[in-house]
Amino acid sequence: MSLHRSHTCRKVRFRDHREAVSALHNVTTLRLLAEEAQQPSRRREVRCYECDACRGYHLTSVAA
Ligand SMILES: [Zn+2]
Questions:
Q1: How remote is the CA of residue 7 from the centroid of ligand 1, in Å?
Q2: How many folded domains does the chain comprise?
Q3: 8 alpha carbon to ligand 1 midpoint, in Å?
């Protein structure tokens, strides 16, 4: 799996829904998201969504 930085969104981008979902179970990816959000590592809900801007998928974390 490779991570891509979108020039449009400046977020970790995934090619498709499947890749985004698999990333949800990847500890390294979750840590990267935590750094991106500049939040201390703690339990939170993470979801993926399709982005209209770059036609890719992003992960978004929701504070529990
Ligand atoms: Zn995007």
A1: 9
A2: 1
A3: 6
Cα 17 to ligand 1 centroid, rounded to whole Å? 13
Domain that holds residue 58: 4-63
Distance in Å, CA 56 to ligand 1 centroid: 6
Comparing CA positions, the residue from 1, 35, 6 lying closest to residue 50 is 6
pTM of the model: 0.63
Provide the strand spans (E) within the chain. 4-5, 12-13, 44-50, 57-63
Q: What is the pLDDT of residues 7-57, one digit of tens each?
A: 678 888 999 999 999 988 888 877 877 777 776 656 667 889 999 999 999
